[in-house]
Automatic annotation (TrEMBL):
Record-linked Pfam families: AA_permease_2
GO molecular function: transmembrane transporter activity
This protein's record includes keyword Protein biosynthesis: no
Protein name: APA family basic amino acid/polyamine antiporter
A GO-annotated cellular component: plasma membrane
Membrane topology recorded in Swiss-Prot or TrEMBL: Multi-pass membrane protein
Keywords for the protein's UniProt record, in alphabetical order: Cell membrane, Membrane, Transmembrane, Transmembrane helix
Amino acid sequence: MAEVREASSKPEAAASLGLPQATALILGSIIGVGIFNLPYSLASIGPISIVAMVLTTLGAVALALMFASLSRRLPADGGPYAYARAGFGNGTGFMNAWSYWITAWAGNAAIVTGWVFYVEKFVNTGHAAGWSIVIALVGLWIPAAVNLSGVKNTGVVQLWTSIIKYVPLALMSTVGLFAISSGNFSPWNVSGESDLSAIGSAMAICLFSYLGVEAAAVAAAKVRDPERNIPKATLLGTLGSSVVYLLSMIAVFGTVPTTELAKDENKASYSVAADAMVGGGTWAGSLVAIAVIVSGIGALNGWIMICAEMPLAAAKDGLFPEVFGRLSNRGVPAVSIIASTVLGSVAMAVSFMGTSGATVFNTLVLMTGITAAIPYAFSALAQLKWRLRDRRELHTPRFARDATVAVLALVFSVLFIVCSRNTGADKWYEVWSPFLMAGAAMLIGIPVYLRMRTRMTEPPPVPPYH
């Protein structure tokens, strides 16, 4: 491992990301492979999932507006963790940091699992589990190596992969709309549940596609002029993602019958849709698959940075072990990068060995939804607490907007937790496995907290509203 030094000694300029790179970090973190696997994952629910995507998009925009407001007030490294700690103390801060860290490395396991679906359009077409694991390990460790080489290289990779990944979604959102057949939207709900339950189940899966709206806030220390660039990047990245998400989902469900999307051989949903749009053949689907493979590398590149930034921020505050707060001679938290990638590798391998198909992806997706919704909810509570305090002390502008957005973000966060059962599974432990896995991962944090609680520094004062 490269020589490491304390976080206070930074051989590389800390703030290396301008507005284009910060926006690319948002786009790259949001648009991974989640959206490209959603039709396959949601095929057991049906086209009614489009309604769930609309509602999830509203929730994501509310979260983006909230994080944009919070980052102007407290542009602190760690994002949701920093807000929870400043608002409610070290105990809550640790819980949120631990929960978000789980989201990041378990999310990487889910991303790379979905990424393998598209790689296996070209190799390991028989989907042998052993080779799938090997392919996934390559997909995890290449971005880890990029992150270990320095923040500047990470930003460059993020920018170019974000441009490439946007192309298939933009084409699907425009050209794809002309290939829609209205008959493919029927039956509307194939889940066997009520429409309301089906929408709730689909929303819990759709949330995974929007994880990353807080990415620039988490990496605040790496962003130049954070008070100006983080809010802009957060809103631009989220809105840019939401437009192509909604339109491309409509195009895929409208082009390919739900029964076809549900087949295991059609895991690469967007490739299947692209082939259908051009009237057959495989060339269009292959081009889409290549773009998705690049997209996955870009998403993992961004999320590995986020994986490292959260423990780094917590370690600086004495909440995580000191080793997570050390920087390598490249100016990056190497221990955090390697530890997070190892944990993601283990989660991925265990999932592949346990089952196959949509269950692997969905279980990891729902688990990360639970652990992400916790810091999202506490960020909303912190915003409400501070804005109500502002209101008592002096008249401030935009109070109604900020309070309404925070309430919406809180409601959506709670809904995502409530709806995170694996409804496509048959056995009770598979249905509740997202909660069991998330709970077990959270319990592991208890001895870490007990060890670190006497070393924690006091949370910083919260700046006044501006």
